[in-house]
Amino acid sequence: MRRTALAACLAALLVVCPSAAAKTVWLCKPGLAKNPCLGSLDTTAIDANGAAHPVKARRARRPEIDCFYVYPTVSGQPTINANRDIEPEQRAVARQHASRFSQVCRPYAPVYRQLTIAAIVRPEGIPLAGARLAYRDVRDAWREYLRRHNRGRGVVLIGHSQGTYMLRTLIRREIDGRPKVRRRLVSALLIGGNVLVSKGRAAGGDFENVPACRAARQTGCVIAYSAFSDIPSADALFGRVITRFPRAGGDPAKHEVLCTNPASLDGGAGTLRTLFRTERFPGVLGAVADAPPAAPTPWAALPDRFTAGCRNEGGASWLHITPAPGDPRPTVNQTLGPAWGLHLYDVNLALGDLVELVRRQARAHRRSLR
């Protein structure tokens, strides 16, 4: 590459030249040794009366669709961006979020140079250059996945927190305006990341052609929410159009944060199918999270422990979580403070519902291709 061309690339703040993309490092991919997205699904259901019984869950033998998972902020490295090393936190969050989807899809998860916890909590704000570097890795992994692995299969995008911010940008730039790629989109689970829609509409904010999911068998759509147990505070990081995280185009007068209840997509409240890992999460986040449920298996199910419903008031939209009154089983708390709500537990509170929705959407997607 000519020196002048290289200088132009560097000056463009991480707008990458074609030859600059590095080969993706995969956390999860079919055939990968020690794949955390294919961990044990052995589960113990714990009832409100304390009774416990095993629950069967099996990986799909020949799943017809893929899942492309982008994990949330987990890196405790002291730099702005993490490196591409695979650390215990990445493996743990892949087990915690993505492994249950192996019941319905082939999971793919790229390692990306994400913004670290240290970068997220900087008083001076999140550096835009660091966010662009993280996104570049996700975009390059997506393009590599389409080029080498997809082969026309349907795909579900799954993200949480920073992973959702990455996927929102990916959908806007790489999928929303490309009908051939969009037809492969079974759905997008964009949890804990402030997906925007036009007020009163199912789309029109972040995306024009990928609307909110309003039925269990709707495809090519988005499921999005952030969980709170109270009205989000004025400085809440989720549920409000204006937050401290990098974003584009949000106007509180025109937009609102999308909330779709995975337990009742067509509206109203529903009982969640809650699933938690029984291992303690490693690193910084594990130190501040609630203690996991105790069970002899890697997973614990808490049937009927929580109900959920979308609420929109005071300029905020969120999934309101209500614990069953008088229930002695483990609950969840705002361990990161009111501004974060139940962010650490967004996915697992409704994980059983999300897996079942993907199962139904996969069937509907298959029928739509006939």
Describe this entry's structure for a reader.
With 370 residues, the protein is α/β, with parallel strands linked by helices. The strands form 4 sheets. It has a 6-stranded mixed sheet with strand order 1-5-4-6-7-9, sandwiched between helices. α4 packs across α5. Helix content is 25%, strand content 19%. It has 9 helices and 16 strands.
Brief digest:
The chain is of the alpha/beta class. The protein has helices at residues 3-11, 88-98, 117-120, 128-150, 162-175, 179-182, 283-288, 346-349, 351-368, and strands at residues 26-28, 43-46, 52-55, 65-70, 106-110, 154-160, 185-191, 196-198, 221-223, 227-228, 255-257, 270-271, 275-277, 299-301, 306-313, 316-323. The strands form 4 sheets. Strands 1-5-4-6-7-9 form a 6-stranded mixed sheet, sandwiched between helices. Strands 3-2-14-13 form a 4-stranded mixed sheet, with no helix packed on it. It has a 4-stranded mixed sheet with strand order 10-16-15-12, with no helix packed on it.
List strands and helices in order, with pairings.
Elements (H helix, E strand, L loop, with lengths): L2 H9 L14 E3 L14 E4 L5 E4 L9 E6 L17 H11 L7 E5 L6 H4 L7 H23 L3 E7 L1 H14 L3 H4 L2 E7 L4 E3 L22 E3 L3 E2 L26 E3 L12 E2 L3 E3 L5 H6 L10 E3 L4 E8 L2 E8 L22 H4 L1 H18 L2
Parallel strand pairs: 2-14, 4-5, 4-6, 6-7, 7-9, 10-16
Antiparallel strand pairs: 1-5, 2-3, 8-11, 12-15, 13-14, 15-16
Helix pairs in contact: 4-5
